[in-house]
């Protein structure tokens, strides 16, 4: 696809009388690109399933708020209890008793929960380079395989080495998932035509909401079942390995790699030029890091990441400690906001394409509107929920907040592709890496403010800070965003070329 074709949708033709004639892009029906989008969706859902379930599972593993049973044996700070429904031959004080519960304080739980993001943040930058050189499929395969194996082994790992061993396991899972978003963004840039960018991208990213819902549901239902909390890890591990198998057999990195795609659909995806997007070993780092529109997207990316992470890491604990919801119901109620997220995400995706393709709003204003809804909505709702102890009102706030936040996928998320289809994976890697380094501060912030998980005032202070960060990021994005394809997106562009162009402009200015 040529540079001009990316700049604006729909295209405009000038009639003989000078008036503009708007032409809606041609429509190609259901095809291979939808199947590929489905596999991206499945991979993303499974990644969030493996990531998010621990927010509920750790409550069952520790049950900090409940009083410990008098008959429970405490050894080295660990609460040893064997699931009574299972006839295990392992003795209660055995190191291999995987059904025990643990006396981990809030600070230790935060260390375990945040350890995933240590690995995730470290690997994100490198994953952008991997995607640029070898495409987006390989990072997704790695994430599915590693998370599957480690999830299955986790109950034995924590029984053997305690919270430190589990933290190492989560770091490795985070490392393997570092390439998920850059990989998906690279695949989207390859497979999604510009006229469907909002709808198909939003559909794929509903995987995060569905994965979180499944994570909360599975962990909430299995935690106190006859199979115990370890069954949560086993179930998720098997699902991830199934996802790996699907990706390996049926997914393709680009339309060129797919064996059965029609010529008509390929032309619809990549345009008349037949060029499409391309991989290139050299990334124009200097041009990227000095781009104001890129930084505006990154800053709001950071704000949204902090808010979203707070939702799935802290909300289960908040509902258990403040709203007095038991673990099983916590999983069910904590899932409702993500159901709203999935539904609204699809709605906002299709709405954005309609607004742009029918010339109701410019692409730039659609990005502004979507991002504002996706940050102001959850920012305000997260503050409001801190003022109530009513379960129904709190859940309504969470549902409304995450439903609104889904609009971000047609805001800053897809804006990375707007700015540079060829380097969208690298842009996402940069933004996601910086965002997750900031996310690492979140558990430290929460544990230092929320000293007592049953103290609502302490939670309120935390929620005010989270909401403020989200809203500030949106203000910067709305002011400085761009939807034009940047010059450094072109094939063969280098930073030295950029310097040459700047010098030529300076010479022209001095001569004028």
From TrEMBL:
<feature type="transmembrane region" description="Helical">
    <location>
        <begin position="38"/>
        <end position="61"/>
    </location>
</feature>
<dbReference type="GO" id="GO:0022857">
    <property type="term" value="F:transmembrane transporter activity"/>
</dbReference>
<dbReference type="InterPro" id="IPR020846">
    <property type="entry name" value="MFS_dom"/>
</dbReference>
<keyword id="KW-1133">Transmembrane helix</keyword>
<dbReference type="InterPro" id="IPR011701">
    <property type="entry name" value="MFS"/>
</dbReference>
<feature type="transmembrane region" description="Helical">
    <location>
        <begin position="142"/>
        <end position="163"/>
    </location>
</feature>
<feature type="transmembrane region" description="Helical">
    <location>
        <begin position="335"/>
        <end position="356"/>
    </location>
</feature>
<feature type="transmembrane region" description="Helical">
    <location>
        <begin position="368"/>
        <end position="387"/>
    </location>
</feature>
<feature type="domain" description="Major facilitator superfamily (MFS) profile">
    <location>
        <begin position="39"/>
        <end position="486"/>
    </location>
</feature>
<dbReference type="InterPro" id="IPR036259">
    <property type="entry name" value="MFS_trans_sf"/>
</dbReference>
<feature type="transmembrane region" description="Helical">
    <location>
        <begin position="111"/>
        <end position="130"/>
    </location>
</feature>
<keyword id="KW-0472">Membrane</keyword>
<keyword id="KW-0812">Transmembrane</keyword>
<dbReference type="GO" id="GO:0016020">
    <property type="term" value="C:membrane"/>
</dbReference>
<feature type="transmembrane region" description="Helical">
    <location>
        <begin position="426"/>
        <end position="445"/>
    </location>
</feature>
<feature type="transmembrane region" description="Helical">
    <location>
        <begin position="294"/>
        <end position="315"/>
    </location>
</feature>
<feature type="transmembrane region" description="Helical">
    <location>
        <begin position="204"/>
        <end position="225"/>
    </location>
</feature>
<dbReference type="GO" id="GO:0006820">
    <property type="term" value="P:monoatomic anion transport"/>
</dbReference>
<protein>
    <recommendedName>
        <fullName>Major facilitator superfamily (MFS) profile domain-containing protein</fullName>
    </recommendedName>
</protein>
<dbReference type="InterPro" id="IPR050382">
    <property type="entry name" value="MFS_Na/Anion_cotransporter"/>
</dbReference>
<feature type="transmembrane region" description="Helical">
    <location>
        <begin position="457"/>
        <end position="481"/>
    </location>
</feature>
<dbReference type="Pfam" id="PF07690">
    <property type="entry name" value="MFS_1"/>
</dbReference>
<feature type="transmembrane region" description="Helical">
    <location>
        <begin position="231"/>
        <end position="250"/>
    </location>
</feature>
């Amino acid at each position: 696809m040529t540079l001009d074709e990316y700049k604006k949708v729909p295209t405009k033709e000038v009639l003989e009388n000078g008036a503009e004639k708007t032409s809606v892009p041609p429509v190609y029906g259901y095809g291979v690109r939808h199947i590929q989008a489905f596999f991206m969706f499945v991979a993303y859902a499974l990644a969030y399933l493996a990531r998010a379930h621990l927010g509920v599972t750790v409550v069952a593993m520790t049950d900090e708020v409940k009083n410990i049973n008098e008959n429970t044996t405490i050894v080295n700070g660990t609460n040893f209890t064997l699931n009574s429904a299972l006839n295990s031959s392992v003795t209660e004080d055995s190191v291999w008793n995987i059904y025990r519960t643990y006396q981990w304080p809030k600070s230790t739980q935060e260390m375990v929960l945040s350890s995933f993001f240590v690995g995730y943040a470290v690997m994100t930058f490198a994953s952008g380079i991997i995607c640029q050189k070898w495409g987006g499929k390989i990072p997704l395969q790695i994430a599915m395989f590693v998370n599957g194996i480690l999830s299955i082994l986790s109950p034995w790992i924590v029984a053997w080495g305690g919270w430190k061993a589990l933290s190492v396991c989560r770091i490795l899972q985070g490392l393997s998932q570092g390439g998920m978003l850059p990989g998906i963004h690279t695949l989207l840039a390859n497979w999604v035509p510009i006229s469907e960018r909002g709808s198909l991208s939003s559909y794929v990213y509903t995987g995060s909401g569905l994965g979180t819902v499944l994570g909360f549901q599975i962990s909430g239902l299995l935690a106190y079942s006859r199979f115990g909390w370890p069954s949560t890890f086993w179930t998720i591990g098997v699902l991830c390995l199934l996802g790996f198998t699907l990706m390996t057999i049926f997914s393709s990195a680009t339309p060129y790699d797919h064996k059965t795609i029609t010529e008509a659909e390929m032309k619809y995806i990549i345009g008349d030029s037949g060029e499409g997007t391309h991989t290139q070993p050299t990334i124009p780092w200097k041009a990227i890091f000095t781009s104001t529109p890129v930084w505006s997207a990154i800053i709001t990316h950071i704000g949204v990441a902090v808010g979203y992470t707070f939702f799935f890491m802290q909300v289960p604990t908040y509902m258990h400690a403040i709203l007095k919801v038991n673990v099983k119901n916590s999983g069910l109620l904590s899932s409702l906001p993500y159901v709203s997220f999935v539904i609204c995400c699809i709605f906002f995706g299709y709405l954005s394409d309609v607004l742009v393709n029918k010339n109701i709003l410019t692409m730039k204003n659609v990005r502004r509107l979507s991002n504002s809804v996706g940050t102001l909505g959850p920012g305000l709702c997260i503050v409001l929920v801190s003022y109530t102890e009513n379960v129904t009102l709190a859940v309504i706030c969470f549902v409304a907040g995450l439903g609104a936040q889904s609009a971000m996928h047609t805001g800053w998320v897809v804006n990375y592709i707007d700015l540079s289809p060829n380097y969208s994976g690298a842009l996402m890697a940069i933004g996601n890496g910086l965002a997750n380094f900031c996310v690492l501060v979140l558990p430290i912030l929460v544990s230092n403010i929320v000293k007592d998980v049953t103290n609502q005032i302490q939670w309120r202070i935390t929620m005010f800070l989270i909401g403020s960060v989200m809203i500030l990021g949106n203000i910067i994005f709305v002011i400085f965003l761009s939807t034009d394809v940047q010059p450094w997106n072109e094939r063969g562009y280098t930073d030295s070329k950029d310097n040459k162009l700047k010098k030529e402009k300076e010479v022209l200015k001095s001569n004028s």
